[in-house]
Amino acid sequence: MKVTVDVDITPEEMRKLFGLPDVEAxxxxxxxxxxxxxxxxxxxxxxxxxxxxxxxxxxxxWDYFQKLMTxxxxxxxxxxxxxxx
Length: 85
Description:
Elements: H1 11-18, H2 24-40, H3 47-75, H4 80-84
């Protein structure tokens, strides 16, 4: 059986439905900070250095997630015969 449900709601309504926080103010502050840094260093503008403080934690999280996902197939590949040994 296959069931399909179409939901017509805004992203804000979806966040509230799942109980996720409203990060709009944080995103606005982050973008203002980035814009300020870009304006301050126009001559020596290096986008990699600009985003490094914001991306360090995110990249570490993705690395952990990737390792977790690659370890799952190995742990779930045992058969019933293997488990009885």
